[in-house]
Amino acid sequence: MDSHANLYATVDLGAIAHNVGVLRDRSGADVIAVVKADGYAHGAAPVARATLAAGAIALGLAQIREARELRASGIDGHLIAWLHTDQADFAGAVTDDIDIAVSSPRQLAAVVAAARSVGRTATVSVKVDTGLARSGISADEWAQCVDDLAAASSEGAVRLSGAMCHLAFGDVPDHPLNSLQAQRLDDAVADLKRSGMAPDLVHIANSPAALTRPDLARDAVRPGLSVYGYSPVPDLGDFGLIPAMTLESRISLIKRIPAGQGVSYNHTWAAAEDTYLGVVPAGYADGVPRALSGRLGVHVNGRLFPNVGRICMDQLVIDLGPDGGGVAEGDRAILFGPQSAAAGVPVPTAKDWADGVGTIDYEIISRVGSRAVRRYVNDPAGE
Ligand SMILES: Cc1ncc(COP(=O)(O)O)c(C=O)c1O
Description:
By secondary structure, this protein is α/β, with parallel strands linked by helices.
């Protein structure tokens, strides 16, 4: 582990294991942990290991490339990948025994061709568009897919593993489309069964549905965000989830400036009185939204010090006040994290940042840049 970095994303794997348990208890179903986008930027492989150790039965990824990287890092569990172009490495996926969720008869045909060329049976799932109108097999291509799947199964080119769909209104628990989408997936599964193919693993629910609509769980739920400790429906509570990531740094420099001195690019803020500044080496290249300039606080020694002036690519400046706030160079500076991470005033959360720029915490956490060294604590696997 790099102990010389400017910036760390400390990831509590014990929190992730705990969150898997919360999701299983709330939904009453097995958990497929979604670890796409490098585990929502927490680090796919360590998160994958922690979730599997906590009982997750499979891992969800968008891209075959992501799934193959996990395989290469030694994860031998059930990997499902669901987003492909015509250039996708289906042959590599078959070789690595990745469950390929297909969204069209064309994708299925490409998988079948790949299975023949590799000389192995491909494991496939059907991703059914039950109302999201994004990826997934559309209603008018469904019958074709079932026929093609039946033919490919009897040839031994594919084995049907699962059936899945994704909700359009998971975060609006009572929205009528949720039940309708589930009904449509159930109907699709019935079609498959009538054609002699029974999927082992049927799954619908993302985080909000896993937490609030246990009736929508089928064989498993498929949460992402909540695995990392965030409630996708904060108005309904935190469900006992624990945010896993703390984005933290150290004060790299302290300096005194006179009243009237402007700070950072274009001097958008100037000191009203003589004051001390602290430089925090984290910027928008690391995922700190520039749009939060002048509107975020950094937690140092139990106090929140305001960012002043523009947030830059690599650094931001905080006002330590006329007495320097008792802060020294090298002191820990927490940008966001779980609220209980440090004593004193609450630590800002990813949700606070998201609210500040009018986005969702999904975007804040998944944009934490690669320069933030990932460091893992409380590994339930004991590594
Ligand atoms: C197909 C699919 N399933 C599950 C998830 C996980 O969703 P969430 O992070 O809301 O739990 C995603 C994420 O966008 C997804 O695309």
